[in-house]
Prior knowledge:
This protein is an alpha/beta fold.
Amino acid sequence: MATINDNYLKLKAGYLFPEIARRVNAFAEANPDAQIIKLGIGDVTEPLPEACRKAMVKAVEDMGDRSNFKGYGPEQGYAWLREKIATHDFQSRGCAIDASEIFISDGSKCDNGNILDIFGNNNKIAVTDPVYPVYVDTNVMAGHTGPANDKGEYEGLVYLPISAENNFTAELPTEKVDLIYLCFPNNPTGATATKDYLKKWVDYAKANGSIIFFDAAYEAFITDPNLPHSIYEIEGAKDCAIEFRSFSKNAGFTGTRCAFTVLPKNLMAKASDGSDVEVWKLWNRRQSTKFNGVSYIVQRGAEAVYSEEGQAQVKELVSFYLENAKIIREKLTAAGLSVYGGVNAPYVWVKTPNGLSSWDFFDKLLQVVNVVGTPGSGFGAAGEGYFRISAFNSRKNVEEAMQRITENLKL
Ligand code: MLT
């Protein structure tokens, strides 16, 4: 009989967000009149920017015209989009990233998981705790860990705790690690990283031959002019970091699907015979074999983000969600809760009141005021006792949810 990849059996029951959806659906079925407001999964609610829509409509027309019709595109993405990204997102900030180092994809979650294809099985891997669960689960699936303990921590991973005490920024590991996941602005805590902080990691990685996976999916939410948007703003990062970016949260592409990975050509890693290998070549080979690129129509939509009107519209979208985050922060703070993040990030990280566990607070919020958030413990053992509230929703829903929480929930 055929056999399966046993590593999947090590995974905890469900991926966090489907598990939340399961509980919410069960509640909704039992309480059909409940007006549930979802501030759980970080999924955008506001319409696509007009510039992107117009560009996609035009692209559909191109596809109906033999002379402009496109079949398979380049697996790495169209040159016109890669050029715009390299110029606008990197070169304008002094980062020497070339268009050939940009790989367009259908999502950051996919890239974060797929990147493990090109790395070996014996790397020591560090993640923060709490952390975006995709980093952990994809390593479990790839067989890079042992089983999970009672707290849900997988054997073999190095967990770097983040909490209010260290401003939700992990200390450098005391043991040598090879692959390091960093996410700033952070999901789930909403924390940010300064250049000095990232410099410590770049220095560590260069000294230890490690590679940093830098997830910058939320960089558009940075309003503080002193904070870096890309790890490549740190000297030396091109030698030791891969960056993941997305159009999901800045331009509302969660349902449209477009993202990109930056893989510098001079980034090297070791083969098992000790020779040095250019990681770019392996990723290029992987993408050419397993991926056929993002649709022409969607890439034209993403390109429009870089037009003058696209930039203005994206800015407006991001400001809208940041205003939601501000409302959440202010209302919950006034209600006496300890609240973090939500200033340069769309996530607000809340200490649960009265020592409630994360899932108990989740159930209480759902059952008493019909508001959905994300239990902190779903992001790791150190997230226990915390709760994440997403700012991705309409203003009306955010205001209504805050009113229900502050007026009807005994905190
Ligand atoms: C989240 O809620 O953490 C996000 O939806 C993650 C994602 O974009 O996959």
